[in-house]
Amino acid sequence: MNNALKYLSRWLCISAVTFSLGFIAVHFGRQTSWYKEHLYQQLISGDADTRLTAATKLALVGAEKQLLAGLKAENPDVHSMAQRGLDHLWFTAAGRRAYQMIDEACAASDREDFPAALRILDEITRKYPDFAEGWNRRGAVLWQTGQFLPAIKDCERALALNPNHYGALQGLGVCHLQLGDIEEACRSLRRALTIYPHDESTRRSLLKCETFLRQRSSDPRKALGSDLI
Questions:
Q1: Are residues 87 and 101 both part of a single domain?
Q2: Same domain, 154 and 205
Q3: Which of 47, 120, 164, 196 could cross-link with 105 by S-S, CB 3.0 to 4.6 Å?
Q4: Could you tell me the pTM of the whole model?
Q5: Are residues 192 and 148 in the same domain?
């Protein structure tokens, strides 16, 4: 009996160690470049469900490089899923509480309660100064309320923290356009398109800005259109 108990105890100990090592191997294996590239290939070539799962997992393991590559894919389903993955990655970058606050701010902005949205976003940028999405969202609310110069500062802060944030570049385009600096608006929108070349709203905005530049060159008195963005 004693020998049996000793054998069982030893077996349980070995099993526990093996399980722990296996868990550690799987956990860290999911952080490897190989695993991220494996998920990227599923994003590129899988069916709809596989792509959704791959984009979700890429976001969870912080595979920004692969998701950014997915934005450049010709297949609209692929770059759409990659965008959703990046949104999740960037929105959750500062943790659960920051994400909840961003969600509350977006809800307030959607119902056009901009003072409430700004109060929340002011708190986010104070508590989480390295959270790029907090600065980007506050910049968006600021330009929506006509505060273009402060919005530019927030968009630039977001880009300093995350140079790949095409949304912040789009915001800069809006602000520079409204301030009458069409050349700078074009530069910001072109930079956004180098990151997300298939974003239709940015492509349309850039086309209109470039058209306006040509028109203004031929007739400097021409007024700024209100529907460029």
A1: no
A2: yes
A3: 120
A4: 0.81
A5: yes
